[in-house]
Design a protein that fits this description.
By secondary structure, this protein is mostly helical. The protein contains 19 helices and eleven strands. The protein has a three-stranded antiparallel β-sheet, with helices on both faces. Strands 1-2 form a two-stranded antiparallel ribbon. It has a two-stranded antiparallel sheet with strand order 3-4.
Length: 513
């Protein structure tokens, strides 16, 4: 908490002047002569700098609070000062105060610094490796850790999530956080089963003057898992469109449907996703009443495909199972769902790949597709979150180039990503990770030079959050420990005591306002 007067003030003013000059230079610089790769590099550089300036913002918020600047200027909270001084929204101001509380370095009354509530997250943001969305994803997971979990495990969890965030998207961090919560709380629960039973329900309102009925409610995990694969077929663009007389009706993969007619209908389809869902419900209800048959979907029966480990099956409690539609199910619900289903056992080798089910023909068999759903979980292209229900089976080595329809040479890829695999200058390539690599046997995607001049192979971890956590743990040579400074228990700000001791306390408090 040094003074801003004298030489320090001059240096800060000089840094601000240089920052403004740099921004002016970038605004005035011509970008048309940059190559595609240079444009991407500039975007990355700007993003890294913006992320680091957020860390500067946290320091400024800490400074104003510890000096009681808001009160001295007549404001009742830091949030109101930020709203007036910076002309930002209340939500933005609240988010900045919360971020400063979790990532800022605060001081005791004696002036000794205390470690941030989320120390590894703060370090990653200061390095420019993560942004505000990453921080929010980490904090969201930390808020859900039960207070019964000891502080060492909490600190390790925050370090793992921060390490993961440096190389993953916020969505990846949040999804991995679900698995991490299951590890920290294997018996009890990510959610109270009694609470789910109480909240479940669908309400159909009375018809209004236009004869429309409002539907509202909440689905439990089992109901959601059964609904997703149905919508994947019946709500696809072009299908069951009541506003288009030429739109095919019923099952979107009925072999009797002309593919060209469907493609033309999809191109004309201007409905929102919500409207397509509504029309799908209507069509499904009609078909179920008439025949009760839903038909196949991408070579497999339309059903809920659940993937779980042998350990989960044996314990029959704790953790999560995944569905082919990208959903999550508590193990107990998954097993209950399987009681009335036709079980299919997929065996895996030590690297997590399914054992050979191969049939040397171009089209994958139903057994191979089931094994790929269990192994890949969804589209294998890095960054894609398409579930298995929206994916086709892809030859990692193109069929026309000698690729074999053996299980180790197949992968799930959604239609949009599949179109990006080609030999053109903007095309991606795929290959199986070599035996000596970290993810042996997994499908690696090689970007075109305009995306990455080094063409470094990439793996999609989005459908494998568990391995992300284990990889992040392994990459850390040793747990990071923080020795509290002298007087760390003596807070400088009333009501903020004990923040460094338990990250969940600050995360549980609201938006600083």
């Amino acid at each position: 908490m040094s003074s801003t007067g004298g030489s320090v003030g001059s240096r800060v003013a000089e840094h601000l002047s240089m920052l403004a000059a740099a921004v002016d230079g970038l605004l005035d610089a011509g970008l048309t002569e940059l190559s595609d790769g240079e444009v991407v590099e500039v975007m990355r550089g700007v993003e890294q700098s913006l992320r680091r300036t957020e860390a500067v913002s946290h320091r400024l918020v800490v400074e104003t609070v510890e000096r009681s600047v808001p009160a001295s200027l007549g404001y009742t909270s830091p949030k109101k000062l930020l709203i007036e001084a910076l002309r930002i929204s209340g939500a933005d101001a609240s988010a900045r105060v919360t971020a400063a509380r979790e990532l800022g370095v605060w001081h005791t009354l004696a002036g000794d610094p205390m470690p941030p509530v989320l120390p590894e997250t703060a370090a990653a943001q200061s390095d420019g490796d993560i942004g505000a969305d990453h921080v929010r994803a980490i904090a969201k997971v930390m808020r859900k850790i039960p207070h019964a979990v000891d502080n060492d495990a909490v600190a390790d969890a925050e370090a793992v999530l921060a390490t993961l965030a440096r190389s993953a998207t916020p969505e990846d961090v949040e999804q991995a956080g679900h698995r991490l919560l299951a590890y920290l709380n294997p018996d009890g629960s990510l959610g109270d089963d009694r609470d789910r039973k109480r909240r479940r329900g669908i309400s159909i309102g009375r018809q209004d003057t236009e004869l429309m009925s409002r539907i509202s409610g909440e689905l439990d995990p089992v109901a959601r898992a059964m609904l997703d694969p149905i919508l994947a077929k019946w709500a696809r663009p072009g299908m069951n469109n009541p506003d288009d007389p030429d739109s095919p009706a019923g099952d979107g993969e009925n072999p009797a449907i002309d593919r060209d007619v469907l493609a033309a209908a999809a191109a004309r389809d201007t409905r929102t996703a919500a409207q397509r869902n509504h029309d799908a419900f209507s069509a499904v209800f009609r078909t179920l009443l008439e025949s009760g048959v839903l038909g196949p979907h991408r070579g497999l029966p339309t059903t809920v495909i659940v993937t779980m480990t042998l350990e989960q099956l044996e314990k029959a409690t704790g953790g999560l199972a995944t569905t082919a539609t990208g959903g999550l199910l508590p193990i107990e619900d998954a097993l209950a769902l399987a009681e009335k289903a036709h079980p299919v056992l997929a065996l895996f080798d030590h690297a997590g790949r399914p054992l050979h089910l191969g049939r040397r023909r171009r089209l994958a068999s139903a057994d191979q597709r089931l094994a790929l759903i269990a192994a890949d979980g969804g589209c294998t292209r890095p960054g894609c979150s398409a579930p298995a229900s929206l994916c086709a089976v892809h030859h990692v080595t193109d069929w026309h180039k000698g690729g074999r329809t053996d299980i180790e040479g197949l992968a799930l890829v959604c239609d949009a990503c599949h179109a990006q695999v080609n030999d053109g200058p903007a095309g991606w390539a795929t290959r199986s990770a070599p035996a000596h690599s970290t993810h042996a046997g997994r499908t690696e995607w090689i970007p075109p030079p305009r995306i990455d001049p080094t063409r470094r192979p990439r793996i999609n971890h989005r459908n494998h959050p568990g391995e992300l956590i284990e990889h992040a743990r392994a990459s850390r040579s040793a747990p990071v420990t923080h020795s509290p400074p002298t007087g760390a228990g003596d807070p400088a700000v009333p009501g903020w005591a004990g923040r460094a001791a338990d990250p969940r306390r600050a995360a549980d408090s609201g938006g600083g306002g």
